[in-house]
Amino acid sequence: MEKQRKRAPSQRSLQTREKILDAAERVFAERGFDGASIRDIAAAAGVQAGLVHHHGGSKEALFARTVARRAETLSQLRLDALENRRAAGPLTARDLLDCFMGPYIHMAGSGGPQWLAYARLVAHVSADPRWRDLAADWFDPTARRFIAELAALSPGADPRRVAAGFVYAVAAMLAHLTSGWRVGALGLAEGGAEAGDLLDFCVAGIEATLAPAAM
Protein backbone atom coordinates (compact mmCIF):
# COMPACT_ATOMS: atom_id res chain seq x y z
CA MET A 1 0.00 0.00 0.00
CA GLU A 2 1.38 3.38 -1.01
CA LYS A 3 2.40 5.56 1.91
CA GLN A 4 0.28 8.62 2.48
CA ARG A 5 2.14 11.82 1.72
CA LYS A 6 2.87 14.03 4.66
CA ARG A 7 0.95 17.26 4.35
CA ALA A 8 3.04 20.45 4.34
CA PRO A 9 2.29 22.86 7.19
CA SER A 10 -0.31 25.49 6.35
CA GLN A 11 0.55 29.17 6.25
CA ARG A 12 -1.47 29.64 9.43
CA SER A 13 0.49 26.86 11.16
CA LEU A 14 3.81 28.42 10.12
CA GLN A 15 2.69 31.82 11.39
CA THR A 16 1.66 30.30 14.72
CA ARG A 17 5.02 28.57 15.07
CA GLU A 18 6.88 31.83 14.41
CA LYS A 19 4.70 33.65 16.93
CA ILE A 20 5.49 30.99 19.53
CA LEU A 21 9.22 31.13 18.80
CA ASP A 22 9.18 34.93 19.03
CA ALA A 23 7.43 34.71 22.40
CA ALA A 24 9.84 32.02 23.61
CA GLU A 25 12.76 34.20 22.58
CA ARG A 26 11.48 37.12 24.62
CA VAL A 27 10.54 35.08 27.69
CA PHE A 28 13.74 33.01 27.77
CA ALA A 29 15.78 36.18 27.24
CA GLU A 30 14.06 37.95 30.13
CA ARG A 31 13.82 35.08 32.64
CA GLY A 32 16.39 32.52 31.54
CA PHE A 33 15.59 28.86 31.02
CA ASP A 34 14.78 28.09 34.65
CA GLY A 35 12.63 31.16 35.21
CA ALA A 36 10.49 30.64 32.11
CA SER A 37 7.54 28.27 31.78
CA ILE A 38 5.52 26.93 28.89
CA ARG A 39 2.54 28.74 30.40
CA ASP A 40 4.47 32.04 30.32
CA ILE A 41 5.42 31.50 26.70
CA ALA A 42 1.86 30.57 25.72
CA ALA A 43 0.55 33.73 27.38
CA ALA A 44 3.15 35.88 25.60
CA ALA A 45 2.23 34.30 22.26
CA GLY A 46 -1.52 34.50 22.92
CA VAL A 47 -2.06 30.77 22.34
CA GLN A 48 -2.97 27.70 24.38
CA ALA A 49 -0.14 25.84 26.11
CA GLY A 50 -0.95 22.77 24.03
CA LEU A 51 0.01 24.66 20.87
CA VAL A 52 3.39 25.54 22.38
CA HIS A 53 4.03 21.85 23.03
CA HIS A 54 2.80 20.97 19.54
CA HIS A 55 5.12 23.40 17.77
CA GLY A 56 8.06 23.42 20.17
CA GLY A 57 8.03 20.14 22.07
CA SER A 58 9.36 20.09 25.64
CA LYS A 59 10.74 23.24 27.26
CA GLU A 60 14.29 22.01 26.57
CA ALA A 61 13.47 21.35 22.90
CA LEU A 62 11.78 24.74 22.57
CA PHE A 63 14.81 26.47 24.08
CA ALA A 64 17.09 24.68 21.60
CA ARG A 65 14.82 25.59 18.66
CA THR A 66 14.77 29.21 19.76
CA VAL A 67 18.55 29.40 19.99
CA ALA A 68 19.03 27.63 16.66
CA ARG A 69 16.52 29.73 14.72
CA ARG A 70 18.75 32.77 14.15
CA ALA A 71 22.13 31.08 14.54
CA GLU A 72 22.53 30.04 10.91
CA THR A 73 21.57 33.49 9.62
CA LEU A 74 24.02 35.15 12.00
CA SER A 75 26.81 32.76 11.06
CA GLN A 76 26.32 33.40 7.36
CA LEU A 77 26.33 37.17 7.86
CA ARG A 78 29.65 36.89 9.70
CA LEU A 79 31.25 34.62 7.11
CA ASP A 80 30.04 36.84 4.26
CA ALA A 81 31.54 39.88 6.01
CA LEU A 82 34.81 37.98 6.43
CA GLU A 83 35.06 37.03 2.76
CA ASN A 84 34.15 40.55 1.61
CA ARG A 85 36.82 42.04 3.87
CA ARG A 86 39.39 39.49 2.73
CA ALA A 87 38.80 40.51 -0.88
CA ALA A 88 39.87 44.06 0.04
CA GLY A 89 43.35 43.03 1.19
CA PRO A 90 45.23 41.45 4.11
CA LEU A 91 43.20 41.01 7.26
CA THR A 92 44.01 42.60 10.62
CA ALA A 93 42.77 41.71 14.10
CA ARG A 94 40.45 44.71 13.92
CA ASP A 95 39.04 43.49 10.61
CA LEU A 96 38.34 40.05 12.03
CA LEU A 97 36.65 41.30 15.17
CA ASP A 98 34.60 43.79 13.18
CA CYS A 99 33.44 41.02 10.81
CA PHE A 100 32.40 38.88 13.77
CA MET A 101 30.78 41.56 15.92
CA GLY A 102 29.50 43.97 13.32
CA PRO A 103 26.68 41.84 11.86
CA TYR A 104 25.31 41.01 15.32
CA ILE A 105 25.45 44.63 16.49
CA HIS A 106 23.79 45.74 13.26
CA MET A 107 20.96 43.20 13.56
CA ALA A 108 20.42 43.96 17.25
CA GLY A 109 20.16 47.66 16.40
CA SER A 110 18.14 47.53 13.20
CA GLY A 111 16.59 44.06 12.99
CA GLY A 112 13.83 44.75 15.51
CA PRO A 113 13.41 43.95 19.21
CA GLN A 114 13.54 40.19 18.61
CA TRP A 115 17.22 40.38 17.62
CA LEU A 116 18.01 42.26 20.83
CA ALA A 117 16.14 39.58 22.78
CA TYR A 118 18.23 37.00 20.94
CA ALA A 119 21.40 38.70 22.20
CA ARG A 120 20.16 38.27 25.77
CA LEU A 121 19.27 34.66 25.01
CA VAL A 122 22.76 33.95 23.69
CA ALA A 123 24.21 35.54 26.83
CA HIS A 124 22.30 32.93 28.86
CA VAL A 125 23.70 30.14 26.69
CA SER A 126 27.25 31.49 26.95
CA ALA A 127 27.07 31.71 30.75
CA ASP A 128 25.72 28.21 31.44
CA PRO A 129 27.85 25.08 30.79
CA ARG A 130 24.75 22.89 30.53
CA TRP A 131 24.20 24.41 27.06
CA ARG A 132 27.67 23.32 25.92
CA ASP A 133 26.27 20.98 23.24
CA LEU A 134 23.91 23.66 21.95
CA ALA A 135 26.78 26.13 21.63
CA ALA A 136 28.95 23.46 19.98
CA ASP A 137 26.30 22.85 17.31
CA TRP A 138 25.33 26.42 16.48
CA PHE A 139 28.13 28.79 17.50
CA ASP A 140 31.44 26.95 17.78
CA PRO A 141 32.09 26.23 14.07
CA THR A 142 32.04 29.94 13.19
CA ALA A 143 33.89 30.90 16.38
CA ARG A 144 36.64 28.38 15.59
CA ARG A 145 36.96 29.81 12.08
CA PHE A 146 37.56 33.29 13.43
CA ILE A 147 39.93 32.06 16.15
CA ALA A 148 41.98 30.27 13.47
CA GLU A 149 42.08 33.45 11.38
CA LEU A 150 43.28 35.43 14.41
CA ALA A 151 45.93 32.83 15.29
CA ALA A 152 47.21 32.92 11.70
CA LEU A 153 48.13 36.59 12.18
CA SER A 154 50.77 35.51 14.71
CA PRO A 155 51.90 31.89 14.30
CA GLY A 156 53.97 32.09 17.48
CA ALA A 157 50.98 32.95 19.68
CA ASP A 158 49.68 30.52 22.30
CA PRO A 159 46.42 29.04 20.86
CA ARG A 160 44.88 28.87 24.35
CA ARG A 161 45.47 32.59 24.89
CA VAL A 162 44.01 33.45 21.49
CA ALA A 163 40.89 31.37 22.22
CA ALA A 164 40.57 32.94 25.67
CA GLY A 165 40.90 36.43 24.24
CA PHE A 166 38.21 35.66 21.69
CA VAL A 167 35.81 34.39 24.37
CA TYR A 168 36.43 37.54 26.43
CA ALA A 169 35.75 39.66 23.34
CA VAL A 170 32.45 37.84 22.73
CA ALA A 171 31.49 38.42 26.36
CA ALA A 172 32.22 42.12 25.92
CA MET A 173 30.07 42.19 22.77
CA LEU A 174 27.14 40.60 24.62
CA ALA A 175 27.57 43.10 27.46
CA HIS A 176 27.56 45.91 24.89
CA LEU A 177 24.27 44.65 23.45
CA THR A 178 22.50 43.87 26.71
CA SER A 179 23.84 46.40 29.22
CA GLY A 180 25.52 49.14 27.21
CA TRP A 181 23.26 51.69 28.95
CA ARG A 182 25.47 51.23 32.03
CA VAL A 183 28.27 53.09 30.25
CA GLY A 184 26.12 56.20 30.19
CA ALA A 185 25.06 55.71 33.79
CA LEU A 186 28.58 55.22 35.13
CA GLY A 187 30.12 57.78 32.81
CA LEU A 188 27.65 60.41 34.06
CA ALA A 189 26.85 61.30 30.46
CA GLU A 190 24.01 60.93 28.01
CA GLY A 191 23.97 57.87 25.78
CA GLY A 192 25.24 54.34 26.13
CA ALA A 193 28.16 52.37 24.77
CA GLU A 194 29.46 53.02 21.26
CA ALA A 195 30.35 50.14 18.94
CA GLY A 196 33.66 51.80 18.12
CA ASP A 197 34.62 51.85 21.81
CA LEU A 198 33.79 48.16 22.08
CA LEU A 199 35.95 47.37 19.05
CA ASP A 200 38.88 49.43 20.36
CA PHE A 201 38.72 47.61 23.70
CA CYS A 202 38.51 44.14 22.17
CA VAL A 203 41.23 44.74 19.58
CA ALA A 204 43.65 45.82 22.31
CA GLY A 205 42.92 42.64 24.26
CA ILE A 206 43.21 40.36 21.24
CA GLU A 207 46.47 41.94 20.12
CA ALA A 208 47.89 41.25 23.59
CA THR A 209 46.98 37.57 23.24
CA LEU A 210 48.66 37.43 19.81
CA ALA A 211 52.08 38.23 21.26
CA PRO A 212 54.38 35.23 20.69
CA ALA A 213 54.50 32.82 23.61
CA ALA A 214 57.52 33.17 25.88
CA MET A 215 60.17 30.53 25.32
Description:
The chain is globular and about 55 Å long. The mean pLDDT is 90. The chain has a single domain, classed as Tetracycline Repressor, domain 2 (Orthogonal Bundle). By secondary structure, the protein is an all-alpha fold. It has helices spanning 11-35, 38-45, 49-56, 59-87, 93-110, 113-127, 132-138, 140-152, 159-179, 181-186, 195-209. Residues 37-56 bind DNA. It comes from Pseudodonghicola flavimaris. Residues 14-74 form the HTH tetR-type domain.
What key phrases describe this protein's structure?
about 220 residues, globular, mainly alpha, 11 helices, Tetracycline Repressor, domain 2, single chain
Please write the CATH class name: Mainly Alpha
Task: Give the CA-based shape.
Answer: globular
Distance between the termini: 72 Å
CATH-assigned fold name: Tetracycline Repressor, domain 2
- List how many beta strands DSSP finds: 0
CATH architecture descriptor: Orthogonal Bundle
Percent of residues in helical segments? over 70%
Number of helices: 11
InterPro entries: Homeodomain-like_sf, HTH-type_TetR-like_transc_reg, HTH_TetR, PsrA_TetR_C, Tet_transcr_reg_TetR-rel_C_sf
Keywords: DNA-binding
Organism: Pseudodonghicola flavimaris
Protein name: TetR/AcrR family transcriptional regulator
In short:
The chain has helices spanning 11-35, 38-45, 49-56, 59-87, 93-110, 113-127, 132-138, 140-152, 159-179, 181-186, 195-209. The protein is mainly α.
Provide the fold topology.
Elements: H1 11-35, H2 38-45, H3 49-56, H4 59-87, H5 93-110, H6 113-127, H7 132-138, H8 140-152, H9 159-179, H10 181-186, H11 195-209
Helix pairs in contact: 1-2, 1-3, 1-4, 1-6, 2-3, 3-4, 4-5, 5-6, 5-9, 5-11, 6-9, 8-9, 9-11
